[in-house]
Design brief:
It is an enzyme of class 2 (transferase). Pfam families: FtsJ. By secondary structure, this protein is α/β, with parallel strands linked by helices. It has two domains: 34 residues; 174 residues, Rossmann fold, CATH 3.40.50. It contains seven helices and seven strands; from the N terminus they run H-H-H-E-H-E-E-H-E-H-E-H-E-E. The chain has a seven-stranded mixed β-sheet, sandwiched between helices. The longest helix has 22 residues. It is globular and about 45 Å long. The chain starts with 26 loop residues before the first helix and ends with a strand.
């Protein structure tokens, strides 16, 4: 889906909007505000009632790789504010009485029908054990959109987010069904090559993918691993 197609529809507004001038607003904050106001994915996510522009990243991943199917069991790591959860619920047709979509985040997530939500630090082994107790069995898809807080130092940010991806992978290897899918965010920086090599040992197909919804200036990409081989 191209969100710019909707900008001529009823109720649309020009994308080239200048951020309002505010006293004591740092240049970095002004740039962020300007970017948000001019971002078609921000506007379209609001129009569709989605919780974040990142919803379109998962939609585009699914359009390319067909990873979310009706009745699939899905775990979303780093799920706040819930944009990926919304897409997963729609695609899997998860029901409130027996949710097949589980989300976890350090931050509180606003309740969402069709999901089971956990607030806690995924890196805490006790929290992971609680998650396993809730799952009570294998899953079809593990999604990780986790990213460490940025420091402004590209190499540090790359390594910290890659560490989260490695933790997510170890969890996925324990809970995925044979043939299952693992999707993880990372920032380009060199270390992803070794990570991809590890993925290829456990999955039949591993591909890099940069959704159109990922900002062009960002080094953000995703690794999509399909066809889990259970040892």
């Amino acid at each position: 889906m191209n969100p710019q197609k909707s900008t001529t529809s009823k109720g649309s507004r020009p994308l080239k909007t200048r951020a309002l001038k505010k006293k004591n607003l740092k240049n970095s904050s002004k740039q962020w505000l300007q970017r948000q106001l001019n971002d078609p994915y921000v506007f379209e996510s609001q129009r569709q009632g989605l919780r974040s522009r990142s919803s379109f990243k998962l939609k585009q991943i699914d359009e390319n790789f067909k990873i979310l199917k009706p009745n699939a069991r899905v775990v979303d790591l780093g799920a706040a504010p819930g944009g990926w959860l919304q897409i997963a619920v729609m695609k899997t047709q998860s029901k409130s009485e027996n949710p097949s979509v589980i989300g976890i985040d350090l931050l509180e997530i606003e309740p969402l029908k069709g999901t089971k939500l956990i607030q806690g630090d995924f890196l805490d082994k006790a929290v992971q054990e609680s998650l396993l107790d809730i799952l009570k069995g294998p899953v079809d898809v593990v999604l990780s959109d986790m990213a460490a807080n940025t420091t402004g130092h590209a190499t540090t940010d790359h390594l910290r987010t890659l560490m989260l991806a490695e933790e997510a992978l170890q969890f996925a290897l324990n809970v995925l069904k044979p043939g299952g899918t693992f999707v993880s965010k990372f920032f380009q920086g060199g270390g992803e090559k070794d990570f991809m090599t590890t993925l290829k040992k456990h999955f039949r197909q591993v591909k890099f993918f940069k959704p159109d919804a990922s900002r062009k200036e960002s080094s953000e990409m995703y690794l999509v691993a399909q066809g889990f081989r259970k040892e």
